[in-house]
Specification:
9 strands; alpha/beta; Pantoate--beta-alanine Ligase, Chain: A,domain 2; about 280 residues; Rossmann fold; about 20% strand; 3-stranded antiparallel sheet
Length: about 280
């Protein structure tokens, strides 16, 4: 596996991987890798060389959020990428990603305006900006993003469509622990009792999705879902039935609908979503 820490090394590595006409797939990550990240590598289109980036992006963290606490394990991450067959690891520092004279950010409306966009103002500006910069640096043919962060996936897809950028976005189904908890780098911060309660989030979502798919009006069913989560000890930010691509709220189920949720256990904020059966 090639390891690049400078733009010159990155461009040289990408040129080597493209030799012979191979397409290049990118897996953007913030490190602290788990099986969900490795599934993104496996989802790259057939025949592609695979590059993975590791960069904890300060632009998507608010001053009150956990940038300094975000888990970091470079040596472990590189070992996992190599074992998974990654061809190139891109590890820029902040000065490389955001030179001091940087004057441009990417602002996405539409799918970025509600839910995480409302709870975390500026978050998706940071996500869109770093993803656009990664696309400019790596010039991938495709890029893989997990459905676990459903709204982020739609924001990136909208950005690529609108600009337009010559990158195929590949959405990859959520990878879960055996008890149903969606895998996340932040799960390691759950206290033992909170970890035991955490799978309730997925259980409530799946049960709620079945009810909504049967034609029930969304409002009372969503209220019951929030009440069930609060009873289990969660502090709920939202549970919502939305149109999958636009994230617009829905009153009843329709084709392409998604049930999304964000809730906190202790100091850990959990995101999850499911499609309607």
């Amino acid at each position: 596996m090639l390891i690049a820490r400078t733009l010159a090394a990155l461009h040289e590595g990408c040129a080597r991987l493209r030799a012979g006409g191979r397409p290049l797939a990118l897996v953007p990550t913030m490190g602290a890798l788990h099986a969900g990240h490795l599934a993104l590598l496996g989802a790259a289109p057939a025949g592609s060389a695979v590059a993975a980036s590791i960069f904890v992006n300060p632009l998507q963290f608010a001053p009150s959020e956990d940038l300094s606490r975000y888990p970091r394990d470079e040596a472990g991450d590189l070992a996992k990428l190599a074992a998974a067959g990654c061809d190139l690891a891109w590890l820029p520092d902040v000065a490389t990603m955001y030179p001091p004279d940087t004057a441009t950010t990417i602002e996405v409306a539409g799918p970025a305006e509600r839910w995480e966009g409302a709870v975390r103002p500026g978050h998706f500006r940071g996500v869109a900006t770093v993803v656009a910069r990664l696309f400019g640096q790596v010039c991938p043919d495709s890029a893989c993003f997990g459905e676990k962060d459903w709204q982020q996936l739609q924001v990136v897809t909208r950005m690529v469509t609108d600009l337009p950028l010559p990158v195929r976005i590949v959405g990859v189904p959520t990878v879960r622990e055996p008890d149903g908890l969606a895998m996340s780098s932040r799960n390691r911060f759950l206290a033992p009792e909170d970890r035991r309660r955490a799978p309730v989030l997925a259980q409530v979502l799946m049960g709620t999705a079945e009810r909504l798919a049967g034609g029930a009006a969304a409002a009372p069913v969503l209220e019951e879902a929030q009440a069930a989560l609060r009873e289990a000890g969660f502090a709920v930010d939202y549970v919502a039935l939305v149109d999958g691509p636009s994230l617009a709220p829905l009153d009843t189920a329709q084709d392409g609908a998604r049930l999304i949720a964000a809730a906190r256990l202790g100091s850990v904020r959990l995101l999850d979503n499911v499609g309607l059966p």
